[in-house]
UniProtKB/TrEMBL annotation:
SUPFAM superfamilies: Proton glutamate symport protein. It comes from the Eukaryota. One of its GO terms (cellular component) is plasma membrane. This is Amino acid transporter. The keyword Transmembrane applies. It is a multi-pass membrane protein. It is found in: Membrane.
C-alpha cells in the first residue's frame, strides 16, 4: 500500500516537539558515548570540559526551574479558587489517595523484584556502597517526618521560595562519641532549596479562601487566572528549547561517569532491576489503573505524554519537568486546566513512585 504522506506530515506537525525531544535524547546518548572515546586510553574528560558541554543544558534547566515558583503559585491559586469548595475537597482527597496507593504499589513491586531476581547476590558490599555526596544525614525517621510537616507551614513565605527547614542533630559536648543519636542535641537549620511543599499548602489555602469569597474578590481571582496563562505562555517558549537542552544534559551525564564498564559490571543487574521495575510500574501498573478507572486507551495517553517523559529523563527532576507535563496534559490529552493545575504541583511534591521503588530495591540490595 502507498504511504499517505499528508497524514504522516500532519502527525509530524502535531508531534514535532515531542519527536525532536526524543531525538535529542538519542543524540545526547550517542554524543556522550562518542565523546568518551575521544581521550586516549586511561584519560578522561576534565571537570571543566564536562562543564562546557553541560553549559547549554544547564541554561535550559535554569530556565525551567525559574518557572516552577510562579507556575505552582499562580496555577494552584487560580485552579482552587475557580473550583467549588466541595469539588476541591473531592479532587484533592482522590488525588492524595491515588498518590499513596501508587507509591505503596511501587514499593511492593520493588520488594518483589529484588527478592525474586536477587541482584546483589554476587556483589561484595564494598563494591556497591556508592559514594554519596556529603554522606547520609544524622537524623531519625521521626525527625524526617516532623520536618515534612514543619515545611508544610513555613513561617516566612518569602524564605520558603529559597530555603527549607531541616533538623540538625549534634553529639553532646560531654560525650562526643555517643552513638545513640536519640541522645544527641536537637537543633534546626535552613538549607538551600525551594520549600515546594510549603508553597503548595499556602497556595491551596489562599485559593480556598479566594473561592469562598469569589464574588467579593473576582478581580483578585481574575488576576491569578491571567497570571497563570502568562506563565504557561512563557513555559511554551522555554519548552521549545528542550531538544537541545536535553541533548547536552544527557551527554554531560554520560561523560561524568568515570568508568562505564566498571559501573555496569558492578551495578548492571541492580540497574536493570530498578529500570525494569520503573518501566513495568509506569507502563503496566499505572496504565492498568488508568484503563480501569477511565476506560480509555492508555497507550494513546502515554504517547501524548512523550515530550514530558523525555524531559523528565533528561532533567531527572519532577519539579523541573512540571511545566512540560502540565502543557502535555492540557493541550494533548485535553485535561481540564483547573484539575491539572491543582493536582500536578501536589503530585510533583509528594508522589515519587520511582524513588519509592528505587529505595525499596536499594534497601534490600
Amino acid at each position: 500500500p502507498r504511504m499517505n504522506w499528508p497524514n504522516v506530515w500532519n502527525f509530524v506537525k502535531r508531534n514535532l516537539l515531542t519527536l525532536l525531544t526524543i531525538l535529542g535524547v538519542v543524540i545526547g546518548i550517542a554524543l556522550g558515548l562518542g565523546l568518551r572515546a575521544v581521550p586516549a586510553d586511561g584519560e578522561t574528560w576534565s571537570a571543566r570540559d564536562v562543564m562546557y558541554i553541560n553549559y547549554v543544558g544547564d541554561l535550559f534547566l535554569r530556565a525551567l526551574k525559574a518557572l516552577i515558583l510562579p507556575l505552582i503559585v499562580s496555577s494552584l491559586i487560580a485552579a482552587v479558587g475557580s473550583l467549588d469548595l466541595s469539588l476541591s475537597k473531592k479532587i484533592g482527597g482522590r488525588a492524595v489517595l491515588y498518590y499513596l496507593a501508587t507509591t505503596v504499589l511501587a514499593v511492593i513491586l520493588g520488594i518483589v523484584l529484588v527478592i525474586t531476581v536477587k541482584p546483589g547476590a554476587d556483589s561484595e558490599a564494598d563494591e556497591v556502597s556508592g559514594d554519596q555526596k556529603g554522606g547520609p544525614r544524622n537524623v531519625t525517621t521521626v525527625d524526617t517526618l516532623l520536618d515534612l510537616v514543619r515545611n508544610m507551614f513555613p513561617p516566612n513565605l518569602v524564605q520558603a521560595c529559597i530555603q527549607q527547614y531541616q533538623t540538625v542533630l549534634t553529639p553532646p559536648e560531654n560525650n562526643p562519641t555517643e552513638s545513640d543519636i536519640y541522645e544527641w542535641k536537637v537543633g534546626g537549620a535552613y538549607s538551600d532549596g525551594m520549600n515546594i511543599l510549603g508553597l503548595v499548602v499556602a497556595s491551596i489555602v489562599f485559593g480556598v479562601a479566594l473561592g469562598a469569597t469569589k464574588k467579593e474578590n473576582a478581580l483578585v481571582l481574575s488576576f491569578f487566572q491571567q497570571l497563570s496563562q502568562v506563565v504557561m505562555k512563557v513555559t511554551g517558549w522555554v519548552i521549545w528549547l528542550s531538544p537541545v537542552g536535553v541533548t547536552f544534559l544527557i551527554a554531560a551525564k554520560i561523560l561524568e561517569i568515570e568508568d562505564l564498564g566498571d559501573m555496569f559490571s558492578k551495578l548492571g543487574l541492580y540497574f536493570t532491576v530498578v529500570a525494569g521495575g520503573i518501566l513495568f510500574h509506569g507502563f503496566v501498573v499505572l496504565s492498568l489503573l488508568f484503563f480501569l478507572f477511565t476506560r480509555r486507551n492508555p497507550i494513546k495517553f502515554i504517547a501524548n505524554m512523550g515530550q514530558a517523559l523525555a524531559a523528565a529523563f533528561g532533567t531527572s527532576s519532577s519539579s523541573a519537568s512540571l511545566p512540560v507535563t502540565m502543557q502535555c496534559l492540557e493541550e494533548k490529552n485535553g485535561i481540564d486546566e483547573r484539575v491539572s493545575r491543582f493536582v500536578l504541583p501536589i503530585g510533583a511534591t509528594i508522589n515519587m513512585d520511582g524513588t519509592a521503588l528505587y529505595e525499596a530495591v536499594a534497601a534490600i540490595f
